[in-house]
Design goal:
- With about 110 residues, this protein is α+β, with helices and mostly antiparallel strands.
- Helix content is about 55%, strand content about 20%.
- It contains two helices and three strands.
- The chain has a three-stranded antiparallel beta sheet.
- The longest helix has about 35 residues.
- The radius of gyration is 19 Å and the shape is elongated.
């Protein structure tokens, strides 16, 4: 159980690190974008010189959101469940006494302990 989780940790750590970095960046950029746009999309003047820049920012965010989903899928394919992307919290499902338990690990921890 714990040994198997720790054996997978180098790969999980690499993916979780990428997930955390990109997730924090996307959250920050979305917050900045929402501050720039204090109105609905319909209210943006099509002649606004910043409209194309805003469209590009949104497209980049969508692309990064897809990449975040790819990181999540990579972790799930390894049999682990990401729980909090910005914190790097991951659960390793395991069996203990004929029931499923979740071994928790966070990105800054050296190994899976519990």
């Amino acid at each position: 159980m714990v040994e198997e989780a720790n054996a997978m940790l180098p790969l999980v750590r690499a993916i979780a690190s990428d997930l955390v970095d990109l997730s924090r960046d996307v959250v920050e950029r979305r917050q900045r974008l929402s501050q720039l746009i204090a109105r609905d999309d319909e209210d943006i003047d099509p002649n606004d010189p910043y409209k194309s820049e805003l469209v590009q920012i949104r497209e980049e965010l969508e692309k990064d959101a897809r990449r975040l989903q790819e990181y999540v899928e990579e972790l799930r394919q390894l049999g682990v469940e990401p729980k909090e992307a910005t914190e790097g919290l991951v659960d390793f499902p395991s069996m203990m006494d004929d029931r499923i338990v979740y071994l928790c690990w966070k990105l800054d921890e050296p190994e899976v302990l519990y």
